[in-house]
Amino acid sequence: MVRNPGISLTDQAYTRIEELIVTLQIPPGQAISEGELCELSGFGRTPVREAIQRLAQQRLINILPRRGMIVTDINVETQLSLLELRRELERMMVRLAARRRNAEEKFQFGEIASGMERVGQADDEEAFMALDKAFNTLVGTACRNPFAQTSMDQWNPLSRRFWYQHHKQVGDLPRMAGLHADIAWAIGAGDPDEAGRASDILLNYLTSFTRAALDADRG
Q1: Which residue from 5, 57, 78, 81 lies 20 to 30 Å from 205 (Cα-Cα)?
Q2: Is 173 a member of any domain?
Q3: Rg from Cα positions in the chain
Q4: Is residue 2 domain-resident?
Q5: Do residue 80 and residue 96 come from a single domain?
Q6: CA pair distance 161, 72, nearest whole angstrom
């Protein structure tokens, strides 16, 4: 396990465990112990224990008193409720980011937009997941609103895990990547109205995607 001296061990442990859960390497419903997470992540008990608390707050892990932990199930109804929040919050955040992004962030949004177009053409899910995470982080920074950024950090892993589970069945990765690119281009161009419009189109797609996943599960 490669350590990054510029990032706390807790943050590194969290990032690794979150990745394992979001990409279903630790599947929903699986019981898991602190020791197993230490072994899987390569980090010691103290950073893993602190990471577990954060994952529990994000509803990725359910801590059962005196009975250990279980990875939470993926729930379509929960995802639909989350999308109601995301629509309003993300519209506000991308509009703010378009107004407040600096020159360096403008360049970074352009890089992400170009990257999204490439991964869409390649239909590369792993590259998309990495760019999506970078995009959300950059929006959170560029909007210059720490409360909105905290809210995004809270729900984002649940949304990413839901997409990862269902996208091969009912999703369209090139479409998803292209919609993200549209938002990134608009933010880079400093156009809050276009950024907000592009965000609404993305959320419309995600709502349709989620309902299609529900229908597929029922079928």
Answers
A1: 57
A2: yes
A3: 18
A4: no
A5: yes
A6: 11
